[in-house]
Amino acid sequence: MNLIAALRARRRLVNVGVGVFCLGLLGYGLFLQHYRGLEPCPLCVFQRIAIIGLAVAFALAVTVADGWRAMRRVVAVLIGLVAVAGSGVAIRHLYIQSLPPGEVPVCGATLDYMWDVFPAMDVLRKVLTGSGECAKIDWTFLGLAMPAWVLIWLVVLGTLGVLVNWPAARRPR
Questions:
Q1: What are the tens digits of pLDDT across the range 56-93?
Q2: Can you count the helices (H) and strands (E) in the chain?
Q3: What global pTM score does this model have?
Q4: Residue 132 belongs to domain with CATH number
Q5: Which residues are CB-contacts of 2 (< 8 A; sequence separation ≥ 6)?
Q6: Where are the beta strands (DSSP E) in the chain?
Q7: Is 121 a domain residue?
Q8: Within a domain: residue 141?
């Protein structure tokens, strides 16, 4: 039995574990914010939303019965889409952090203010273009900034979620 087959055999346990791990990632981000004073930039907030979305998708995957092959595929696709969307935000964040100081976009309004004043699509557009505050690197681990770690976890957990939840092909009789 290969590793993926072994994980599929314990699909619900894997989904619970990964969902709890996502909540742990979120908890660590909140710890850094509230106890270490690292305020999240708008792109960081969107990455947090992706981690929350991934936790919700894994929680949904726990509720799907093993025999519901179509629903398992839907959940696997949902996990993949959330991971890809969050990865896109993290990649954009890393790009902004890699820009030379003269090319970094100027700092804009706070996310709270933008939600109060602008339509949702304008807020999304402004946030995803990034601002000067998104270029600041104030936390690293093993030489990687926070968005790099978020990207790594989204890719790893998203891939695991798709592989574990996508039903194995039926064997011909």
A1: 999 999 998 887 888 999 999 999 999 999 999 999 88
A2: 8, 2
A3: 0.80
A4: 1.20.1550.10
A5: none
A6: 140-141, 144-145
A7: yes
A8: yes
Residue in the structure block whose two tokens are 């979620």? 161
Sites in the chain below the pLDDT cut of 70: 1, 103-115, 123-133, 170-173
**What angle do the packed helices 11-36 and 42-63 form, to 10 degrees?**
150
Does residue 173 belong to any structural domain of this protein? no
Q: Which domain holds residue 41?
A: 3-165
Question: Is the residue at 142 inside a domain?
Answer: yes
The encoded tokens of residue 19 equal 């969902």
Helix, strand or coil, per DSSP, at residue 140: strand
Asked whether the beta carbons of 32 and 38 are under 8 A apart, the reply is yes
**Count of domains forming the chain:** 1
Q: Which 3-state string (H, E, C) describes the chain?
A: CCHHHHHHHCHHHHHHHHHHHHHHHHHHHHHHHHHHCCCCCHHHHHHHHHHHHHHHHHHHHHHCCCCCHHHHHHHHHHHHHHHHHHHHHHHHHHHHHHCCHHHCCCCCCCHHHHHHHCCHHHHHHHHHHCCHHHHCCCCEECCEEHHHHHHHHHHHHHHHHHHHHCCCCCCCC
Give the whole-angstrom CA distance, residue 73 versus residue 71: 5
